[in-house]
Design the sequence.
């Protein structure tokens, strides 16, 4: 099913006025007040140019926007923060959800219920007040819904608890027919399976309820070493990993830091490698556990400490203001000595790599186990995630993509078959069947045909409805 959304006509002012009369939020057209603010996304190299933006304040607003899109045969794209947007949304209806930001914490049942526009930075403090923690991502400005629908790889609790999608209790979703559906394992098991891992292919999630965990603090942070010691640090870390318990989550990163004030002085403009840790056992046990890694080389900076869960964003210390970049990731099915040597060759001290970050996350544990209520997440059993990030303006787009490709293509011999949807590039021309594998994809296609037969929700890594 091929679409040329760029040929769709503009939305007429009178049609926009009719839509505006049905919603409590805002309806914005190109050139109008507020349009540019609402189409902005986190990645400054990506641009949205939709036919109309509906800034939704309620479920009814979302339903009105979807009904309008159906009547005009337009695609729908949902935007909270825009960390991962596919396509420019030519001719589309963009539903901006940031005003739908209610957060409710139930300390007794250890659950959170959040609106479509909520970011992790809005959930974590409220959960911690109740002595609880979510399966959040590494960046607090990422939207909860998109992250969770794409699987959700938590760098703090994931190895012991699994994917964020594994712990969704229920969702409220507006499907392509404009209907609001309460979806859980009992009410609609097929759609519930597909939504958790199938990203935004099946509707607009307006709210979701998910598990929280009794983790008010942890022992975590990062140790930064001179980049010249990359091989020593990486070799020590990969040898250390098998002996660690599931409550220890760790990752390795090669970082070429920019010389900007936002970067701490010891790291500013430096080439370093970093080990990041999140351990929910005691600080004493954590300190003893990572002592052999601390001894590998003198640290440039060591931030590992006992911390309240409210400070977990400091572990990865990712940008929270919009930046220009290009990123793409793959999964690795193994990481033998030959792969280690190749990674050092590709991004190490003797390489000509200009990547801002090359990150290797160790998975395993609960990430490998199917949850009690299975879902569409396709990457279980793959032990590593590898991500390349190149920073720079759109004028350097070709070089940015070339730098990331050099890393990922170089590691091709160890690439796993399935892909983590949240680590795909916005413009990555990847067949969704390759992302999910044939059996899982066939099931997704059948569910797509039931709930979105005309492929309204196609501005993504698209599951195409069965013919």
Sequence:
């Amino acid at each position: 099913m091929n679409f040329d959304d760029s040929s769709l006509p503009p939305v007429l002012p009178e049609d926009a006025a009719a839509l505006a009369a049905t919603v409590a939020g805002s309806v914005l057209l190109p050139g109008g007040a507020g349009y540019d603010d609402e189409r902005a996304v986190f990645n400054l190299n990506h641009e949205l140019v939709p036919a109309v933006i509906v800034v939704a304040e309620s479920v009814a607003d979302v339903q009105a926007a979807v009904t309008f899109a159906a009547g005009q045969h337009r695609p729908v794209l949902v935007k909270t923060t825009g960390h991962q947007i596919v396509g420019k949304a030519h001719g589309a209806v963009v539903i901006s959800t940031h005003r739908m930001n209610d957060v409710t914490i139930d300390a007794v049942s250890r659950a959170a219920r959040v609106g479509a526009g909520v970011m992790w930075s809005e959930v974590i403090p409220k959960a911690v007040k109740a002595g609880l923690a979510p399966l959040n991502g590494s960046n607090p400005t990422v939207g909860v819904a998109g992250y969770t629908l794409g699987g959700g790889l938590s760098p703090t609790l994931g190895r012991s608890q699994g994917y964020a999608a594994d712990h969704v209790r229920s969702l409220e979703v507006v499907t392509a027919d404009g209907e609001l559906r309460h979806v859980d394992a009992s009410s609609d098991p097929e759609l519930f399976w597909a939504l958790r891992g199938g990203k935004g292919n099946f509707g607009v999630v307006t709210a979701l309820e998910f598990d929280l965990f009794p983790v008010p603090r942890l022992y975590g942070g990062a140790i930064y070493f001179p980049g010249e010691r990359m091989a020593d640090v990486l070799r020590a870390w990969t040898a250390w990993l098998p002996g660690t318990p599931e409550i220890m989550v760790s990752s390795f990163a090669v970082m070429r830091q920019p010389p900007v004030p936002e970067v701490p002085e010891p790291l500013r403009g430096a080439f370093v490698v970093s080990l990041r840790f999140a351990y929910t056992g005691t600080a004493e046990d954590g300190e003893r556990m990572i002592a052999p890694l601390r001894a590998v080389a003198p640290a440039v900076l060591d931030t590992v400490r006992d911390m309240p869960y409210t400070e977990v964003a400091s572990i990865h210390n990712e940008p929270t203001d919009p930046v220009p970049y290009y990123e793409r990731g793959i999964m690795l099915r193994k990481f033998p000595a030959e792969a280690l040597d190749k990674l050092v060759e590709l991004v190490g001290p003797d390489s000509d790599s200009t990547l801002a970050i090359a990150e290797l996350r160790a998975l395993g544990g609960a990430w490998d186990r199917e949850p009690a209520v299975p879902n569409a997440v396709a990457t279980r059993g793959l032990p590593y995630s590898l991500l390349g990030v190149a920073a720079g303006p759109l004028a350097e787009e070709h070089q940015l993509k070339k730098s990331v490709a050099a890393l990922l293509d170089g590691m091709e011999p160890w690439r796993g078959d399935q892909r983590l949807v949240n680590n795909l590039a916005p413009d990555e021309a990847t067949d969704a069947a390759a992302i999910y594998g044939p059996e899982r994809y066939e099931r997704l296609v059948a569910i797509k045909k039931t709930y979105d037969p005309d492929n309204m929700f196609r501005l993504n890594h698209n599951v195409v409805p069965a013919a």
Summary: DSSP finds 14 helices and 17 strands in the chain. The domain at 5-96 is CATH 3.30.43.10 (Uridine Diphospho-n-acetylenolpyruvylglucosamine Reductase; domain 2).
